[in-house]
Write the structure tokens for this entry.
Amino acid sequence: MGVEGTAALTPQPVDSEAARRAEAARLKAEHDKEFAAFAEGSYHTVERILRAACRDREVVEDALNEAYLHGRVQWLKIRTYREPTGWVIITARYKILKELQRRQREAAVAPEDLPPAPHTDIADAWEAQETLRTWLHHLPPRHAEVFQLSREGYSNQDIARVLGLAETSIRSYKQAAKKRLRELAEEAGYTDSESRRRQGGSRGPR
């Protein structure tokens, strides 16, 4: 009777499997919410960066969506990275490259679009953005990415970390991109104060 009485007072063992499942569900919900916030906050920035190097919006969006789907699966690891956005950029860029290579194998590549016809000025911010994007497509992809990352507010150090390059390379790419964009702008009929001074000589424009 004494043994039975002691056993009756012993608490029932905790259902460890149920507790484990509950904790796993809680963590999954937490990580889902965390990844959703990351995707919402970074998607449009990454899209602009990728479209600076690839003119095909559909290809960019498909690659970007695949990259984020893959990112959700790998989020436990990616969330520990210093620059999770850099992982998305690199993954999506690889997918874009593979898709463009596939298309090249299936059909002849259309000739590159020529720079836009001269305009007297840019009507609005949307047109300016589209014009710049067109010009970026005439740059080497890495130069375009570096320039767009800079426009998004990334420092040279940040860009180097995101793209896995040396800061000296970033500075060189940025300088080359700006030089080529100025050339394209002048070819398209746009001028700035510097080019007008150059055209007007030492005495400046008349």
